[in-house]
């Protein structure tokens, strides 16, 4: 509980604080005066200088800041100065879910991810009232309190004589998922005011950023409840903790090391093997994920269009092929990346929700979902095929345009979602059938399948040599507890951060010709075999992959070898998913979930036969259709029903009763 201290004690502590400033923070104090900004103080340094000051700040921050403000004014010789002391490196860090009434009025540190944020607006931080009869003055923080104040001595209504206003922003932070231990993440409303909400610092409190903050826990009455109180956090200091690539500090020594690494032609292998080294193999997938993390080049066209640089990858894996483990490891290695499971995800949780909060946010406010929180990073979506179709379709806009449009309540907004998607899915029957197209084995819409730049299949095929190597690797990891990457996680992050900031490679004529040659060669197959081998979507993906490859070596141009690497990964993806055993060709329609050429032929034959029989009689029985097809040398009895169902869905046939068909 807060308690006042006598004047002699105040003067003693004020002198100690002023001496500490003059000894330890003279240069910072001078710079703060020149910039008219606040002064940042290391709590541990102050506590070491005077434990009494540290104890007073933690236990009675209201009294401490009153003393500190006077000491700062005396130090700089400006009695009207509004310069404040901000404290970092607080040892008393509390989980949001563990904040209790004993912490009310105390100075603590918390950590969380911003889920909601209001606009920056003037906020009345303090009101001063005076009683006309007793001449008594009273200061209050007006949040959640009645507008009319009455004198404690005589009971008369007091007159407001002064207001203290500051620019402020309300944010809602949520406990990081790794600290929740399986429970619902706790949330806390925080007010970020003064210098922390100015033009330079405002972005720190944007939605999606992970923050470490110090400040005072305060209470206000809960809305419509007179006896129940609600916590809020008055922020004193804010620091980001890897909220984005741009916040990673790259020193001159780091820059020299990064350039040295980039000059090594073997850097692709070194970096890809540093991704989830505890997982054996998956070389092509790890290389593709590496390029996905670096990303292509975003471009804006003169007519207002946008060409995306984000690379999307789909991994279709049989059970026990490590795709889920791979995604979880990557999540922990990449700033702002998140992992979600299709079974527990909804449209609102992935995009944004609109909630009303008149007390803190000032009305309707957007609460960001996973795609927005991961803006500029990666979103891992496991068990993608288990999501509801209406939830899957929300990925269309973000994957192609890097945006999410929302129109709810009084809010119509377009939110940034330049998020690369790494999705994992399982075949419906646990094992892949090479004779069936992907659309029949995975519950993902065709239009969504086509938006993935690369698609890989992970099959669990018995192979004594590979199985032996895999078992030795697993036993080694279990015995030693880890598998050391060739490049440490922090160096890898700095490497990627530096590359994203410094490298924007341009396509050369030679690289363009290489990619065009591959594309046109694949298109020639379509001319002779009536099979669509490749489309423009794959060509655009090739360009993004080649640009990402150039970024890895800090190359200002896309070189021939970058184009060749993109082609190799694309071929691996097309051969795995696009090869049609019946036609012996690559069919892009098998990859993107459309009707393969081999099935289109069956559809045409069956539809033509029903059309022919319809000229004789209106209702065509199944047995009559099978017999007529056999007379033509066609024996597809077991596949007829599947083709008929598709024709009915397309509105070309009608089934008035089971096993009876009519031509529409």
CATH topology tier name of the largest domain: Rossmann fold
N-to-C span? 82 Å
The percentage of residues in β strands lies in 15-25%
Write down the Rg: 32 Å
Structural class: alpha/beta
Could you characterize the architecture of this molecule?
- This protein is an alpha/beta fold and 664 residues long.
- The protein has 4 domains: 7-87, mini-chromosome maintenance (MCM) complex, chain A, domain 1, CATH 3.30.1640; 96-243, Nucleic acid-binding proteins (OB fold (Dihydrolipoamide Acetyltransferase, E2P), Beta Barrel); 252-576, P-loop containing nucleotide triphosphate hydrolases (Rossmann fold), CATH 3.40.50; 597-663, Arc Repressor Mutant, subunit A (Orthogonal Bundle).
- It is built from 23 helices and 27 strands.
- It is elongated.
List keywords for this structure.
664 residues; alpha/beta; mini-chromosome maintenance (MCM) complex, chain A, domain 1; 4 domains; 5-stranded mixed beta barrel; 5-stranded parallel sheet; 23 helices; 27 strands; 23% strand
Helix and strand topology:
Blueprint: H1 7-24, H2 26-35, E1 39-42, H3 43-49, H4 51-59, H5 61-76, E2 85-88, E3 107-117, E4 121-130, E5 137-140, E6 159-174, E7 187-193, E8 210-221, E9 229-240, H6 252-262, H7 267-273, H8 283-294, E10 299-300, E11 306-307, E12 313-317, H9 323-333, E13 338-341, H10 347-350, E14 352-357, E15 363-368, H11 370-373, E16 378-382, H12 389-392, H13 395-401, E17 403-408, E18 411-416, E19 420-425, H14 446-449, E20 454-458, H15 464-480, H16 489-502, E21 506-507, H17 509-529, H18 536-552, E22 557-558, H19 560-578, E23 579-580, E24 585-586, H20 588-591, H21 597-614, E25 620-621, H22 622-631, H23 640-649, E26 653-657, E27 660-663
Parallel strand pairs: 1-2, 7-9, 12-19, 12-20, 13-16, 16-19, 21-22
Antiparallel strand pairs: 3-6, 3-8, 4-5, 4-6, 6-7, 8-9, 10-11, 14-15, 17-18, 23-24, 25-27, 26-27
Helix pairs in contact: 1-5, 3-4, 4-5, 7-8, 8-18, 17-18, 17-19, 18-19, 21-23
